């Protein structure tokens, strides 16, 4: 087990904090570790039909290009993961789910972050909103889940939460027939 000696530097933002810590390593030597405190997040796979899902295309600054992903976002203070998933679906697509179920929760970067992402499946969607958050979302795309799987195989979809969501649907047998 490693033990923190002290924090050398901290960067605080509205969304997360990053800390550079000096630690005592398991072998007794001193080392440095980066630790990111990040709020939990929720993602949602919105099924428009038994075969088609709704995805969002958006520019990701750190990645330097547009990506195709399932809707997702950070959980607000005091917000439940399922409420966040519903909110993000509405904000990013204008749809409200009739039913959602938790698919899986995971830690995307345990080597340096405490973030947990909860992935939900949404069904019985109703279009309520007329627009999408254009500050974030470039476009909405309706894609058959079989095509999403092919896009993943070809490396056209690289977003980790989307990859894991599709994989876990197959693994857990929760994909609609």
Description:
- It is a single chain.
- It contains 3 helices and 12 strands.
- It folds into 2 domains: 3-37; 41-172, Nucleoside Triphosphate Pyrophosphohydrolase (Alpha-Beta Complex).
- A hairpin with a 4-residue loop joins β5 (52-60) and β6 (65-69).
- The chain is of the alpha+beta class and 177 residues long.
- The protein has a 4-stranded mixed β-sheet with strand order 7-4-10-9. A 3-stranded antiparallel β-sheet has the order 1-2-3, with no helix packed on it. A 3-stranded antiparallel β-sheet has the order 6-5-12.
- The mean pLDDT is 92.
- It is elongated.
Average pLDDT score: 92
| Biggest β-sheet description | 4 strands, mixed
Q: Which strand order do you get reading across the main beta sheet?
A: 7-4-10-9
Number of E-state strands: 12
Question: How would you spell out the order of helices and strands?
Answer: EEEEEEEHEEEEEHH
Q: What CATH first level of the largest domain would be assigned?
A: Alpha Beta
The number of helical runs is 3
Q: Report low-confidence residues grouped into runs of 5 or more.
A: none
CATH topology of the largest domain: Nucleoside Triphosphate Pyrophosphohydrolase
Q: Which homologous superfamily in CATH is the superfamily of the largest domain?
A: Nucleoside Triphosphate Pyrophosphohydrolase
* Helicity level: 10-25%
| Backbone shape | elongated
> Which value, in Å, is the CA radius of gyration?
18 Å
Structural class: alpha+beta
Head-to-tail CA distance between termini: 46 Å
Strand content: 35-45%
> If classified by CATH, what would the architecture of the largest domain be?
Alpha-Beta Complex
How many distinct folded domains?
Answer: 2
